[in-house]
Amino acid sequence: MDFFVSGNLHRYPLTAFFLLLYYFSTGQHTITGKIQDRVSTLALSGVTVKLIKNDSTIQSASTNAFGLFTIKNVKNGTYIVRTSIIGYQSLDSVVKAYADLQLKMDLESSEIALEEIEITATPAASIRGDTTEFDAKKFSTREFADADELVAQIPGVELDEEGNVKAHGEEVTKIIVDGKEFFSTDPRIALKTLPAEIIDKIQLIDEKSEQAKFSGFDDGNRRKVINIVTKPDRRRGTFGKASSGYGDHQKFALNSSLNRFDGDHKLAVNLMANNVNETNFAEQGRGGSRRGNNNTERGLTDTYAGAINYNNVFLEKKMDVSADYNVKSSGTDVVSNSDIEYILGNRANQFQQQAQLQHNKETAHKANARVRWNIDSMQRLDFSPNLSYQSVHRIGSNNSSMFLNRSDLLNRSTRKNDHENGSFIFGGELTYMYRFRKAGRTVSLNVGGNKNSNDALGKNLALTEYYKDGLLNRLDTNNNQSITNGYGSGFNGRLSLTENISKRSRLQANYSLRNTRNYSDRQTFEWLAETGQLGELNARLSNEFKNDYLYHRAGMSYAYNKKDSLRFQVGLSYQHGVRNNDRTFPINLLTRADFGSFHPEFSLTYNINKERRLELQYHTDTNTPSINQLQDYINNQNELRISNGNPDLDQEYNHNLKVQYKDVKRASGQSFNSSFDFNYTNDKIVNSVLTTDTAVVLFDGIVLGAGGQYTVPINVDGAYGVRWTNSFGIPIKMWKLNLNLNNTTFYNSNFAVLNHAFLNGYNYGIQQRIGVHSNINKKFVSGINYRLNLTYTNNPIATVPTYKVYSHTVNHTLTYEFFRALVFHSSLLYIYNSGVLGDPGTKTLLWNASLGAKFLKRKNAAVSLKAFDIFNDAQNINRRLTDISITDVTSNTLTRYFMLSVNYNLRHFNR
After folding, report:
1. What one-character-per-residue DSSP string does 298-351 give?
2. Does the model's pTM come out above 0.85?
3. Sign (positive/negative) of CA torsion 278, 283, 286, 290?
4. Tens digits of per-residue pLDDT, 806-835?
5. Spatial separation of the C-alpha atoms in residues 617 and 630, rounded to whole Å
6. 796 burial via Cβ count (<10 Å: 0-12, 13-18, 19+)
7. Are 64 and 46 in contact (CB under 8 A)?
8. Does residue 25 contact residue 18 with C-beta atoms inside 8 Å?
9. CB of 194 within 8 A of CB of 183?
């Protein structure tokens, strides 16, 4: 008909007119659409879609795994599109079909549990695809608590002393709110911005890449994400907090947060300033408290920081836009003392003592944005630019002495350094996805790139004395200045095509391209003492180096999907890479290396039932050495710790296997998660270390003195690690408690080269955490956590082959509100670190407490007297065990102080 009308219209105008009139009056149209969960924005499969006219069903369809449906051959007219699926409220939409239509429908949860219709309450916990969901009402927090206090109680979730989050043993890289980006630059900020009281659900998500979610093929790129689902009646309003405090020893702390939520439009602003070691937003309000005892590099820190986040939707909610920016300026003074005992090779029975002074000044800016545009039901665009700048200035001094058998002096060194470094990074990622009308046929293209620059200036003055038989044998002076200028760029792209070959199986073809280019020019000049000026360029300590790496990768994957039961994917790709190293100074040298490797992949997901799920993933990847590892220049800023690069390094080839089992009881809230991880690496990059008790000439003009160490990276085969992580959570309703158990067992086989001898050592151990939290009410909230870390380290040529190091940590928190307006808060921390080789263990008991009185009509303001480290027992002590040494480090830390503070909480929501 189209040909007849367009080609013969001028010959048969009357006939064409009636044909067109008939076509538009009885036209056949197509209705397509996507259906998703309104809160999480996750696509809903298996939704029944009915097209109804005059109370009669004309046609019906169901959504696929991506939440998409299609109804064809729809005549002109007005219809009702009705959706239905167990667990969600039915939705009727009136549509007028006089042309092709594209619909987007959001369904609300009906609070009816699958397969348990008699239960009317929201499930305490549930599994939905890659998401494990917990009902926030099953956990108690104190009034006006931040989100981190709630999230820390979720089974399998851990927060460390700096607010970093792990879920089921994996680092959480991002916090999202109602499925949208929220402070993506730093997930810790989100947890201190949102109040716990507005949270409805917590979702732990194994998030796939945008390409993988769109195409249905797993590309192996996953990250752990927490989605905070807010209560529907808390999505519109203004809320925030502000606090100010001043104490003895001129201690101060200022914190504020202001948020405006209006549905999809969100604006959040955070500010902080303090000199009580609250170094990031996750630590604000803790008054320098910590959960561990391994922050010996922190010392005493002043911090000033700000952050802002913006979210909104445009183009009739087809485009989501989010952006965040944060800035931080900090100054840190560290005074530390180290006691090092060497346990391997000819260094055994050597001991080193160090005293260090360090002042660091750091300024950092970070900005991220994301634009997600659903152009129509067939096309989607995702764009994520990012930018960061960091400036660091370090001034320090170090005094070191090394002894044989703790009595015979081998060397003594005094060093001063002044280093400045500035780095800038700009990049982004763009993904375009297109879905053809034929079911299962898609094409997607992902491209990304970045540019970076790094400039550094280092001044170094070192005086080193070497002794032999107790007498001064040699005196070396190292007085130089190094200037480093570097830049780099990178580009990557991935094209993916998918096609259905049956109702349950699909094929994917993919091609990837990546290119990185880096340049570094390091110039080292000797200072002339007689003139006080820079002398000639030291060619041996200077280097100009370019690195170019290009690889292509192509492969095929097959996926089989049996609805709601079994899904597996198998694939194979081949990667070929070419690396060019071009050293132009001090000697021209061009080297080229070719790499070729096959990359198999396999994944399986088996839904045993609605509450249990088994997953298996296997994939391989490569890791290219950095330009610092490749660049062959001598770094002797510390004459006792000389290092060099290796331009002949190969890339690492990694095998990764993960098996995960999830079991969640929807009614009771009991949850169990177990994951087994195995990693095996060929051509692993490790350090080859040369140690000596006598002077050794490394190169012309470069001498490694007695007690010194020379390090070069090399490749070794066969390194592997095994990790088994379990988390179990159960509410004890009888006592109104929540019990969480987290356990990790690990075994790592490590390789090293010491004095040209190949060493195969290993370490193994367990980490056990037990947490019990009350779930009574907001006026009485208490929790206790116990953590055990136990590690065995085996070194075959050590003085003692196996070393055991363990620690016990107990943390108890209590908040009690009495007499309606008085609030008592207590945090008690006990840490015990074991000794090694007969050395005594160390103990720390840290108690912080506050007593406050609420005021104002809504009792949303309070004045409090806070006491930090009441027992005055705070100390920074850290024990480090490596392949060749045992190190005890102590440093200055925040000690007892008292502070009077005023707090105000803003809550104003539009019901």
Report:
1. T-EEEEEEEEEEEEEEETTTTEEEEEEEEEEEEEEEEEEEEEEEE-BGGGTTEE
2. no
3. negative
4. 999 999 999 999 998 999 999 999 999 887
5. 32
6. exposed
7. no
8. no
9. no
